[in-house]
Amino acid sequence: MLPTLLSRRAGWLWLVCLALLLPGCGDKEPDERKAFMAFLQTRILDKTGVRVPKPTPEERTAWGRYAAHYDVILNFHQAMDEKVAKPMSTEMQRGRLQNMQDLMDRVAETKAVYTNLQRFEPLLNEELTRADQARQVLPQPADLKAVFDAAFERNVRAPSAAMKESLPPAVATLKAALELGEFLNANRSRIKIQGALVETADPALQRELQTRLSAVQDLQRKAQEAQRRLQGQIRGS
Questions:
Q1: Is residue 22's pLDDT more than 50?
Q2: Taking 80 as the threshold, does the pLDDT of residue 13 lie above it?
Q3: What is the pLDDT of residues 140-159, one digit of tens each?
Q4: Residue 76 CB contacts under 8 Å (≥ 6 apart), including other chains
Q5: How many whole angstroms separate alpha carbon 112 and alpha carbon 178?
Q6: CA angle, residues 171, 174, 175, in degrees to nearest 5
Q7: pLDDT at residue 9 above 70?
């Protein structure tokens, strides 16, 4: 009779453990959460700038269910790298102009670069929205949520805001340069180009040229300032 009673009690205890998922009955969530929070704190938040370290297989195993949470940040940066950062860098290099003659000779190419640059901000917004939506549905205890939200702000929201700030000045600069190149070509017979200098015997044309050139230079300074802020955000300086 006694062994039967003990067996029944052991069976009930096992059922209680399964139902309540008590610590000591196989629930690894506290340890997974602790490991994940430590990674976010020491590898991201305690550093300066944007840091997106790639976890080892052992770290992902230790995080358990929370490994998928970090994928929200990883997937955002992978998409940004493939869809925005790399192609935008290619376009910016392609749109680099050496002098006034180069600007005149490459109007068609400059126009293509200008058109392509305008598609990056919508792509950035699309990926940011996707990451935000994924983050909002993550089931996280309050302590983990506070740390994860801080890491998300550092690695996703802040650099996205800085990049969104840097794009309009770059696009505006290229547009003004394109318009200047078209204007120079339209008045090719009335001007003489020597390196960075454009000379003309027509005072009215000279004033128009100077106005357009000053506009390009002003926009270029704003674009460079925005780029410096973006780099500072990334480096943490």
A1: no
A2: no
A3: 999 999 999 999 999 999 99
A4: 127, 128, 130, 131, 155, 156
A5: 10
A6: 85
A7: no
Q: What string of DSSP letters covers 132-185?
A: HHHHHT----HHHHHHHHHHHIIIIIHHHHHHHHHHHHHHHHHHHHHHHHHHHH
49-53 own/partner pairs: CB under 8 Å, 24+ apart: 49/233, 49/234, 49/235, 49/236, 49/237, 50/154, 50/155, 50/158, 50/159, 50/233, 50/234, 50/236, 51/154, 51/155, 52/77, 52/155
What counts of helices (H) and strands (E) characterise the chain? 11, 2
pTM of the shown model: 0.80
CA–CA dist 42, 216 (Å, integer): 44
91: its two tokens: 């376009």
**The predicted structure's pLDDT at residue 237:** 67
The span from the CA of 154 to the CA of 172, in Å, is 28
Q: Is the pLDDT of residue 103 over 90?
A: no
**Cα 66 from chain centre:** 23
203-217 tens-digit pLDDT: 999 999 999 989 999
H or E element that contains 18: helix 2-20
d(CA 72, CA 127): 11
Q: Is 208 left (phi over 0), alpha (psi -120 to 50) or beta?
A: alpha
Q: Using CA atoms, how far apart are residues 194 and 88, in angstroms rounded to an integer?
A: 31
